[in-house]
Amino acid sequence: MKVTHRAEIFHHGRNKSQIVLGDFVVLDGTLEVYEHGKMTIGDYSYVGRARIYCADSVFIGEHCLISDNVCVMDSDLHPLSATNRAVIAERWALGEFPDVYTDTPNAPVTLENHCWIGFGSAILKGVRVGEGAVVGSNSVVTKDVPPWTIVAGNPARIIREIPENER
Predict the structure, then answer these.
(1) Has keyword Repeat (predicted)?
(2) For residue range 97-124, what is the model confidence (pLDDT) as tens digits?
(3) Which of 4, 46, 106, 129 is the most exposed place for a label (fewest CB within 10 A)?
């Protein structure tokens, strides 16, 4: 594993096994794993200057490329209610770490092997990006991406399948 001088890991849990980094992972971005989160990054995967939030479960397979300015989130991190958000903001200002679980939707994110997530993209809670899929730059992925497809846009839509000879 290679961790660059810019990489950051924020682990808010109590168990070291909540973060599993495979062999030959290159980390140049930020990982934030909350109290009940579990993050796994497979062998030979690269995380550029991205930020990955994990309140529930984030699984990144082997040989994945995650570009700069990417955001992966398995949680909304804040409740929808403005009143509840105000309480969180006030408590945070007083030094209390925010609760990312009560009234906050969380759902696992999975990036299967050989994915490429393009610059500036967002992968949101509950999404599975299939094996070999490519997410175009500045895309917002809100739904599952089939294996061996290219998606792009906001929201991300299938552009085309990747034929066997391009895999």
Answers:
(1) yes
(2) 888 898 899 999 999 999 999 999 999 9
(3) 4
**CA atoms within 13 Å, Cβ hemisphere of 144:** 9
pLDDT of residue 99: 86
Residue with tokens 């906050």: 104
Q: In angstroms, how far is CA 150 from the centroid of its own chain?
A: 18
Asked, for residue 56, whether it belongs to a domain, the answer is: yes
Evaluate whether residue 42 is within a structural domain.
Answer: yes
Q: Is the pLDDT of residue 14 over 90?
A: no
In-domain check, residue 104: yes
Neighbours of 167 (CB within 10 A): 10
User: Exactly one of 11, 36, 78, 114 is catalytic; which is it?
Assistant: 78
The number of domains in the chain is 1
Domain that holds residue 93: 4-158
Identity of residue 112: E
Instruction: State pTM to two decimals.
Output: 0.95
